[in-house]
Specification:
The chain is mainly α and about 80 residues long. The chain has one domain: Non-ribosomal Peptide Synthetase Peptidyl Carrier Protein, Chain A. The chain is built from three helices and no strands. The radius of gyration is 11 Å and the shape is globular. About 15% of the residues are buried.
Length: about 80
């Protein structure tokens, strides 16, 4: 799952994730549009809907993995 998130972040923003604890905003300097673009990639890839309110709980790569695993998407 880490590699898939890493690839999605790079595809959407051109930025490289370094660790599981990489913070999307603090470490990568992403803005809300960047986050939405990453979410769209995962919504299309896994045919899911991620509500905007859930984005407030996803700050790091680790958070994103945990969220997707709770949604039944695990690799």
């Amino acid at each position: 799952m880490y590699e898939e998130i890493k690839a999605a972040v790079f595809e959407a923003t051109g930025k490289n994730v370094r660790t599981l604890d990489t913070d999307f905003i603090k470490d990568l300097g992403l803005n809300s549009l960047d986050i939405v673009n990453i979410v769209v990639i995962f919504e299309k890839k896994y045919n899911i809907n991620i509500p905007n309110r859930d984005l407030w709980d996803i700050y790091t790569v680790r958070d994103a993995i945990s969220y997707l695993e709770k949604r039944g998407i695990a690799r």
